[in-house]
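Q: What does the predicted 3D structure of Probable cyclic pyranopterin monophosphate synthase look like?
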Amino acid sequence: MPEFTHINGDKVQMVDITAKGEVKRMARAEGTITLRSDTVAAIRTGTVLKGNVLATARIAATLAVKQTPQLIPLCHQIPIGAITVDFTDTEVSITAEVTVTSYGRTGVEMEALTGVSVALLTIWDMVKSAEKDENGQYPVTGISDIRVIEKIKG
């Protein structure tokens, strides 16, 4: 049976990291939102009514990274050294990639994953009127494949 560091019987606790040494940390995460091709084209050409979708998603991801300990209960507050947010697209999707670096006692995977998640949710929010069908449903739109693609310690 695996050993869980945050769980002791029916008690949940934040792991004590005070004895760990500080080292450089980096995590890169990505995730994808699937959209209608017309929506991706509107994002590319800057014709979405709400404004610049990717600039807004980039700001949202950056804010989310910095707020991760307020969203995930047992996540440590750590000093963030840098955040980069990049986007790539296909005809029917946009992939967000968030890289977070820090110098500290614990990793930054949760921060990178939170940044990706909020970037993709922001894109959805900004284009939802274009994505809905005649019944107000989202038959094409979906968020998937959110994962850590790289982690460096030291």
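A (community wiki): The structure tokens above were generated from the sequence. The chain has three helices and six strands. The beta strands are 7-8, 11-12, 23-34, 80-89, 93-104, 142-153.
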